[in-house]
Design a protein that fits this description.
The structure is a homodimer.
Chain A: E1 2-7, H1 11-31, E2 35-41, E3 55-56, H2 59-63, E4 68-73, H3 81-90, E5 94-97, H4 100-116, E6 121-122, H5 134-138, E7 146-152, H6 155-167, H7 171-180, H8 189-192, H9 195-209, E8 219-220, H10 228-237, E9 239-250, E10 253-264, E11 276-283, E12 287-294, H11 298-314, E13 340-341, E14 343-348, H12 352-359, E15 363-364, E16 375-378, E17 382-383, H13 384-394, E18 396-403
Parallel strand pairs in A: 1-2, 1-4, 2-3, 4-5, 5-6, 8-10, 10-18
Antiparallel strand pairs in A: 7-9, 7-11, 9-10, 11-12, 13-17, 14-16, 14-18, 15-16
Chain lengths: 406, 406
């Protein structure tokens, strides 16, 4: 018998309890482990549930119960989650979390606490929801040097872009549809400005390269500037517009970024649509691998939390988490402005001759019923700084979007 | 220091050594484990290699070296691989293998031997090559009931079908191209008749449902009967033709199968092209997850072998393999002929009226320049037995292909 506790009875917390109750017998039979739900911590009351007797408002009930060896933290936010998680780890209780903000901001510290107390801090649910990616990366793919990661890490923005691509909706209408479907929050800033994807690429980068990458070090561009004109140019040129969280090796530095990209339709990532997530890894042995699935939702997220809980309970007393060191500064982060990139540019009040004079060899794009003074093109590889300088001389630049290097 | 041995210095064996030498320092740094290659077993001589001193022709050198805790078996075939693997496990040495034939035929017995000797038998490389799927399924997804698995499990046949779809090649030309590119063997039977995919779906089924599924219990249809006419009908109707290894729950039984399918283009599996593999899992919590990557090749397969070796070395003395029981008989395998299915049928010497009389409500398909006496259609759901009976009365049935239920 292994006892676990759940901190928070919101969407993910109640989903974790629901999935556990649904599959408990099967888990016992197939995994050989008899898990028991000991406590659910929540400040609210939930009378009338079949497991209402499990609720407590006092974290000490969990901390002081030596039978509880694993704790699922699914409250969200940094406080008080951070204090609770640290207290659990300091007591030698493994913690499994879906809390991307907590991991992106405090991961290195919490991993160290877990190591010091011979327990595990796991967070598969924090990145890609149900999709197994963190554990496979640091176990199954451990024989490789990871050279690049690129992912559609936010389902809300992918839903919005998919509606723009498939239904010719403009951004505002697609956002409203996402809100009406419950995919986007009333205040959608964290999704559409890329902050959510940013936390996830921080976690992936930290795990892949061994040093904590803080969100404020990541160049982050959202999708609120994407128009149906851009989507139309992309489509005709053989691309899909996707919000990509990425990180790659640049010499002895790494370059993490969140930005919309033109993804070639031949690339598997381009077919990841609606609320689905897809995460592509590149390595020197396996070449490329993509993981695809639901990046959010009650039971999908609960699936990842419960998978971590089961593994922690089975391997109690081992140290199997991935690990990374804290970073004193961001000197290992490359400056994106000096890196070579190809970009799609759309501008008004100019012409092709001027584009060629300024940018040299480019690929001009077309779309139906474009105004006569609009030009759209894809540059040759050059630095972001160069592109910006040339754009200033070009005319009214309406959009600039990176090309994904498949 | 952990010492490992490699049995066999063919494509995968030499790739495993190459990848290990390439990434050894990184593995030490990131995984905290100092792996050393102790031996390579091969009956051939390999003079002039930087690691020529590691070769032995005698398995006893490995068996009797107590410092060797992990053995990678990459010889292929059942004999002598089986005897060597069993001997290693009986000595308490963990074994990691890429040998799908060995696992499909002897998996239950070898897993039991590993359990009895407190070591691990792992085989991530046996299914999906580089793609992490077995370990994620029994760890990250352990909180779910797996209800269905469907995968493009053979790169050779997927390459052939992709060329038929994208380049209008007929089967014979596409097969020849695959052979010229080194993707297909001179005798391509094991690939094109589905035997290779069959072994892999046996392994996935056994792991997902806990009982050994032997290849001879699996209904297995290859792709040698697929024509460009079928591919053309599929394309126009919104499908891609793929060879799918699948297993699903049918009441308290399971139904494993290998067969070509019409996969809807909206399904992520349909975009898996060329030599890539894609494996879709369905579960009651995560809903659906797909793993995509290279299913074969020297370094991709080596990546999976080395990932297992690292994990076995790190977790020496634990029992972390997946597990399944042996099966006395196939009474838990459902009879595919009594299960409901929708099928694409193409027939000559008949007409639509006769189709409707026999099959009732169907969806008729069209293609460019079809002969006037050819009909093609998709049936309503009915049993395989019913479909066969009706086909006998229909005329000259040229093709019948299952529809994938996305």
């Amino acid at each position: 018998m292994s006892k676990f506790a759940v901190l928070g009875h919101g969407v993910v917390g109640s989903g974790t309890v629901e999935l556990f109750n649904m599959n408990r017998e099967l888990i016992h039979k197939r995994q050989g482990i008899d898990l028991e739900l000991g406590y659910i911590l929540d400040i609210r009351d939930f009378p009338g549930l079949p497991y209402s007797d499990k609720f407590t408002k006092n974290i000490d009930d969990i901390l002081n119960d030596d039978e509880v060896t694993v704790v699922a933290e699914v409250m969200g936010g940094v406080h008080p989650a951070y204090d609770f998680v640290l207290a659990c780890l300091n007591k030698g209780k493994s913690v499994c979390t879906s809390n991307k903000e907590l991991v992106a901001k405090k991961g290195a510290e919490l991993l160290r606490a877990a190591k010091e107390h011979n327990c595990n801090f796991m967070f598969e649910a924090s990145t890609g929801g149900a999709i197994p990616v963190l554990r496979p990366m640091h176990t199954c793919l451990a024989g490789n040097e990871i050279t690049r990661i690129a992912g559609i890490l936010n389902g809300t923005t992918n839903f919005i872009l998919t509606r723009m691509i498939e239904d010719d909706m403009d951004f505002a209408d697609a956002l409203k549809l996402a809100q009406d479907n419950g995919y986007a929050e009333k205040d959608p800033t964290a999704d559409i400005e890329g902050h959510d994807a940013c936390r996830k690429i921080c976690i992936l980068s930290s795990l892949a390269f061994g040093r904590h990458v803080y969100p404020e070090w990541v160049h982050c561009v959202g999708i609120s500037g994407i128009t149906i004109e851009d989507v139309a140019y992309a489509d005709k040129a053989g691309y899909s517009v996707k919000l990509i969280g990425s990180v790659e090796c640049v010499g002895d530095k790494i370059l993490p970024m969140v930005a919309p990209r033109f993804v070639p339709k031949s690339c598997e990532l381009s077919s990841v649509s609606d609320v689905f997530n897809g995460i592509m890894l590149y390595g020197n042995g396996f070449d490329q691998i993509m993981f695809y699935g639901k990046g959010a939702g009650k039971l999908p997220t609960a699936s990842a939390v419960l998978g971590d809980v089961i593994d922690c309970a089975k391997k109690s007393g081992t140290d199997m988490s991935g690990f990374w060191e804290d970073s004193a500064d961001n000197s290992f982060i490359a400056d994106y402005k000096t890196q070579t990139v190809r970009k799609y540019i759309r501008a008004a009040g100019t012409d092709r001759a001027k584009v060629t004079t300024l940018f040299g060899d480019v690929r001009f794009l077309s779309r139906d019923s474009a105004p006569s003074d609009e030009v759209a093109f894809i540059t040759s590889p050059m630095t972001e700084t160069d592109i910006r300088e040339k754009c200033e001389k070009l005319g009214q630049v309406k959009s600039d979007i990176r090309i994904y290097n498949a």
